[in-house]
RNA sequence: GGUCCCAUAGCUCAGCAGGAUAGAGCGCAGGAUUCCUAAUCCUGAGGCCGAUGGUUCGAAUCCAUCUGGGAUCACCA
């Protein structure tokens, strides 16, 4: 049961029956009518702007129309009070029985409460991480990984048919470099002294075991082969090993993809899929042979004007046409991307989401152009750019340089602060906003740390049940019908908490549709805050405490409320991918 | 230079498809509490929402220009 959806239909129903509306119904757009919680709780429980939206087309003024609508809404027995305020807002206050029924339905739905159908089973593909398989993941991948994963979870909960996908960039020259780096480690494993790793190769120790594995499997045989011969063998081994590392890293972050899609597959069989994709674009009239104008600003030293096969992406919104085939006849990375997109489109996705780092911002228009050209405007593609994360240790920025290999790995961060803290903090900021990540603050066990604060609220809920078991030794809470006693919930403080819970489905839908998982994190914090505040009231007013051993029925009713709070926290935390602990001593 | 993101309280940030008196946490000021259910609680001060125009009944929110900060520019992947 969704309070705001419920009242939206009730309000629209009431409108349909008004004479003044009936006369001009065809000219009215109900789509702009909003039914939402009022900014200030003192205004009521539900507010609508219906009168302000409809006044103009009806040729009347908002206040007058609001009065008419308000009168009609008073007929609803669940409504206890309707008032008109400000420029024409209609504020509705709900009677206790409605809240009690709502609470009962929340309890009955448990962690399914809030699940929505707005996604309408639309097929959505969320691609995220897609880190190059040349080494373990570093902190830079963290944010996109968490945001993408949480967004996918969120959209699933909101009724989309979601596929979590990882694009493996396992073709191209960086993989050759990887293979050569591994080959060096292989020689090292055979007993050769390799000295310092030459610049241009990957120096990381994580390649040592890969070299050893090759030495064990092949002995010295590879050593005597020409590069052409050992390259494919070493490549396969290296990519497999790197993907194993990455999968471990993802696991540590609680990130799980449904599909790992290999770029090499697009290049297989004489680049069959890429050729097909280019043919498709050519057929649709988007491909030509020509030259590009030199880049604006500073001209690269090796710039030469050469003819190549180009995608006329400027026709579909890009700033510049894009090369598909290099002058040496090989395909560009971008060509593979076209093929990859076409493959996704052919797999039948309605929505394709790319979660990228801000450093890929320049790539967005290109991808959108591909989507338009390949799908003839039918596919919906959105790119979610995550701004960069700055690491701090005790207020001091952590310096990283790729050259010296002195970068912080994802694993180090997770090991130090814990998966839950990493995930929640990555979500506790709008993704279009840069993020400061301070190790000290993130690991702090205090109410100033949002992760702790929210998880602690859940642990506190569990604690209430533990106490209830002590107070009522005979009660079996697993089989108890908690929702049956909801009608005993009537204290204004409790009602406020129920009202907060009532916002959950709205938050889910709005966050999923706006593709902004941070909204959920903020909501969870807000809910936790309401719960803690109510708990604290019990200190001064013992009659508000959840467990009262003198009043069994009331205690059971309140345990129902606690159960509902715990369910929403658990469900929301699950979407963010963080745990909902039972205790946190 | 082009493109993209950002600018809201002293600090870090929310603000939901324009709507009521712009919110939270920290910090600051004052007060309560040594009790208890588990990591205190309550109150208060703080803002021309970067600037200027525009759109309209109404703009922090939409549009244009400007200022300041970040990212990016390729036959790389």
Structure characterization notes:
This protein has 585 residues and is an alpha/beta fold. Among the domains are: 3-94, Gyrase A, domain 2 (2-Layer Sandwich); 258-386, HUPs (Rossmann fold); 445-576, Orthogonal Bundle (Isoleucyl-tRNA Synthetase, Domain 1), CATH 1.10.730. It is 49% helix and 12% strand. It contains 20 helices and 15 strands. The chain has helices at 3-16, 19-23, 50-58, 62-73, 96-109, 142-157, 173-189, 208-218, 227-252, 263-283, 333-346, 364-375, 410-417, 419-427, 439-443, 450-471, 492-502, 504-514, 518-540, 552-576; strands at 35-36, 46-48, 79-85, 89-94, 123-127, 161-168, 259-262, 287-290, 308-311, 322-325, 351-357, 380-386, 389-393, 396-397, 435-438. The strands form four sheets. It has a five-stranded parallel β-sheet, with helices on both faces. A four-stranded antiparallel β-sheet has the order 1-2-4-3. A three-stranded antiparallel β-sheet has the order 8-9-10. A hairpin with a 3-residue loop joins strand 3 (79-85) and strand 4 (89-94). Helix 5 packs across helix 20, helix 7 packs across helix 9 (227-252) and helix 13 crosses helix 14. The radius of gyration is 29 Å and the shape is globular. The two termini are 35 Å apart. 40% of the residues are buried. It binds one RNA strand of 77 nucleotides through helix 3, helix 7, helix 11, helix 16 and helix 18.
């Amino acid at each position: 049961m969704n309070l705001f959806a419920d009242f939206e239909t009730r309000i629209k129903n009431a409108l349909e029956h008004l004479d003044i509306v009936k006369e001009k119904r065809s000219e009215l757009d109900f789509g702009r009518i909003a039914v939402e919680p009022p900014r200030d709780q003192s205004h009521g429980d539900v507010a609508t702007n219906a009168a302000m939206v409809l006044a103009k087309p009806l040729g009347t003024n908002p206040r007058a129309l609001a009065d008419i609508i308000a009168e009609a809404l008073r007929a609803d027995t669940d409504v206890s009070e309707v008032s008109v305020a400000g420029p024409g807002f209609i504020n509705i206050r709900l009677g206790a029985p409605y809240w009690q029924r709502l609470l009962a339905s929340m309890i009955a739905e448990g962690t399914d409460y809030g699940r929505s159908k707005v996604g309408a089973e639309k097929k959505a593909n969320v691609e995220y991480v897609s880190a190059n398989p040349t080494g373990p993941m570093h902190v830079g991948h963290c944010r996109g990984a968490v945001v993408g994963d949480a967004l996918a979870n969120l959209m699933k909960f909101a009724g989309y048919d979601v596929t979590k996908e990882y694009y493996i960039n396992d073709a191209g020259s960086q993989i050759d470099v990887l293979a050569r780096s591994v080959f060096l480690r292989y020689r090292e494993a055979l007993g050769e002294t390799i000295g310092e790793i030459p610049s241009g190769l990957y120096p990381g120790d994580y390649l040592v075991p890969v070299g050893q594995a090759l030495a064990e499997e092949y002995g010295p045989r590879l050593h005597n082969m020409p590069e052409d011969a050992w390259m494919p063998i070493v490549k396969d081994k290296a990519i497999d090993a790197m993907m194993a590392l990455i999968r471990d890293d993802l696991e540590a972050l609680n990130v799980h993809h449904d599909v790992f899609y290999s770029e090499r597959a697009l290049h297989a069989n004489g680049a069959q899929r890429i050729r097909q994709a280019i043919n498709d674009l050519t057929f649709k009239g988007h491909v030509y042979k020509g030259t590009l104008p030199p880049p604006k600003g500073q001209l690269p030293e090796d710039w030469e004007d050469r003819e190549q096969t180009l995608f006329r992406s400027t026709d579909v919104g890009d700033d510049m046409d894009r090369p598909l085939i290099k002058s040496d006849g090989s395909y560009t990375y971008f060509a593979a991307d076209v093929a990859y997109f076409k493959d996704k489109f052919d797999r039948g996705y309605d929505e394709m989401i790319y979660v990228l780092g801000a450093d890929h911002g320049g790539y967005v228009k290109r991808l959108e152009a591909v989507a338009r050209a390949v799908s003839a405007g039918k596919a919906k593609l959105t790119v979610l750019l995550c701004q960069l994360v700055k690491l701090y240790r005790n207020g001091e920025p952590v310096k990283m340089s790729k050259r010296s290999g002195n970068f912080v790995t994802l694993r180090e961060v997770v090991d130090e602060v814990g998966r839950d803290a990493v995930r929640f903090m990555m979500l506790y900021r709008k993704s279009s906003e840069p993020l400061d990540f301070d190790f000290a603050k993130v690991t702090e066990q205090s109410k100033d740390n949002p992760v702790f604060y929210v998880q602690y609220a859940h642990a506190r809920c569990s604690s209430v049940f533990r106490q209830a078991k002590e107070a009522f030794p005979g009660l079996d809470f697993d089989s108890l019908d908690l929702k049956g006693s909801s009608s005993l919930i009537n204290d204004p403080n409790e009602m406020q908490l129920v009202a907060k819970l009532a916002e959950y489905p709205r938050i889910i839908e709005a966050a999923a549709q706006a593709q902004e998982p941070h909204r959920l994190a903020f909501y969870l914090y807000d809910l936790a805050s309401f719960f803690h505040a109510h708990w604290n009231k019990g200190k001064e007013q013992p009659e508000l405490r959840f467990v009262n051993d003198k009043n069994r029925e009331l205690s059971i009713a309140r345990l129902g409320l606690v159960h509902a709070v715990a369910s929403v926290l658990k469900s929301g935390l699950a979407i963010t991918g963080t745990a909902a602990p039972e205790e946190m001593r």
